[in-house]
Fold this protein.
Amino acid sequence: MTVLVWIFLILLVGFGLGFIAMPLARARGGGSLGQADERREALREKEGALQLLRDLEQDHRTGKLEPEDYAVLRPEAEARAIAAMKRCDGLAAETGADVEDPIERAIRLERVRLERGASR
C-alpha cells in the first residue's frame, strides 16, 4: 500500500475514534455543556409544540381536520406547548441563562445596534 492509503486509514480511524469518544467526553465534562444541550432541546421542544398548534389551527380553518378531531387534538397540543414553555422557563431560572431562540436574540441585538447608531 502506498503512503497516502496509510495516511487516509489513520485519519479515518482517528476521526472514528473521535466521533465515538465525543459523547463520552461531554457526559464526563458535566455541567455547562449538558445544560446548554438541555436548553437547546427544551427550545426545540417548545418550537415544535407551537408549530403543532399553528398547524392544527391551519388544518381546522381549511377544513382538513374534522371539528371532532380538532376538539380532541387541540387541548393535547396546548398542554404540550404549556409544558414545553414551563420547561424553558424553569431551565432559565435554574441556570440564570435565557433560553432564547438564536434568531430572536440576533434580531434583538441588531435592534440595539441600530438604536445606538441612530442616536449618534
